[in-house]
Amino acid sequence: MADLDNKEQTEVDPADMEDVEDVEEEEAGEDSKARQLTVQMMQNPQILAALQERLDGLVGSPSGYMESLPKVVKRRVNALKNLQVKCAHIEAKFYEEVHELERKYAALYQPLFDKRSDIIKAVYEPTDEDCEWKQEEEEELTVSKQDEMKEKAKLEDEKKDEEKEDPKGIPEFWLTVFKNVDLLSEMLQEHDEPILKHLQDIKVKFSDAGQPMSFILEFHFEPNDFFTNTLLTKTYKMRSEPDESDPFSFDGPEIMGCTGCTIDWTKGKNVTLKTIKKKQKHKGRGTVRTVTKTVPNDSFFNFFSPPEVPENGELDEDSEAVLAADFEIGHFIRERIVPRAVLYFTGEAIEDDDDDYDEEGEEADDEQEGEEEADEENDPDYDPKKDANPPAECKQQ
Questions:
Q1: What is the pLDDT of residues 67-126, one digit of tens each?
Q2: Which of 60, 91, 188, 273 is the most exposed, having the fewest neighbouring CB atoms within 10 Å of its CB?
Q3: DSSP string covering 6-63
């Protein structure tokens, strides 16, 4: 009887089943419409912009905790903030002393940099002892094998010397450095390269003791057909002092402005300007005339004519962007290029810089691959056999 009762309880009227199916279909239809509506909304740029603006407004917004604190606690927090301002002023003094240390050690580095310059310019020919360099792979070789390889290399060098004229110094040293560094190569134009072949040295000069913080980049050129200057300079003025209106923003010395120099171009050789021809039609007579105009031209040498910072410190957006890029380049030349020039010439410093991003890049690649695999699995037209048999072009590569 119990079984019969259960059967009676579990039996469902077919008409009721139809009602259930209708409800499920309606719910599924509503879900599908909601998804379609969401996709349409996310493809609308205005809705996306509004959503992004809303999200940006939430970033860094206060949690309300500070407002909820009792007045006596807020009072103590103000005391901590006053202490923080004093810390910022001490930190500023610390960086001033760091600048003095940089100035002191620059004098110790300079004789080595001068010798580097003499080798590049062929003023000094390094001795065999100077040129001895032990490669990592040679460390595991026997002494006899090393001697054999050195002798072979020497014979090959002598053969090459007989075949062609021995170049002086290290040709195109600084031009190669510029071309190897993305930050500088982006500024470099094809018409700049013949000029930079004449660049012999870059030096950094720090301000004297007791003077306002600054540094000068000196670009030394051999005599050339492009300009009469043998020295081009760029001066960067710095400040290590918290801003009174926003002392908590202090994060070390900042570049306050920079000044370039006048380049005395040879007639017709100024690569920072170009001549264009425009046709103008007379409104009344309808005659056409050709007008020649001189306009600015993209060039690395615009680096020596930065925008002037007005006394009130206010700049338009374009000038601010130019100066921000200029400060980054000046700082990079001072901090990295001049001290490690040979490693940027050989490309070894580039590899070191790239290593800083490898791990992050691999993670990003893995994440992208995971997303692609997920997309493939969800794609009804995806055929794994196509991946197993790549096109002929891919196989050849």
A1: 888 889 989 989 999 999 999 899 888 888 888 888 889 999 999 999 999 999 999 999
A2: 60
A3: HHHHH---HHHHHHHHHHHHHHHHHHHHHHHHHHHHHT-HHHHHHHHHHHHHHTT---
Phi then psi for residue 113, to 5 deg, are: -70, -35
CA–CA gap between residue 177 and residue 35 (Å, rounded): 54
Closest CA to 382 of 369, 373, 395: 373
- Report which DSSP code applies to 137: G
Flag whether the pTM goes above 0.70.
no
- Which of 164, 189, 168 lies closest to 178, judged by CA? 189
Distance CA(71)–CA(1), nearest Å, equals 76
pLDDT tens, 287-306?
888 888 889 999 999 999 98
- Quote the DSSP letter at residue 223: S
Angle subtended at Cα 70 by Cα 65 and Cα 74, rounded to the nearest 5 degrees: 75
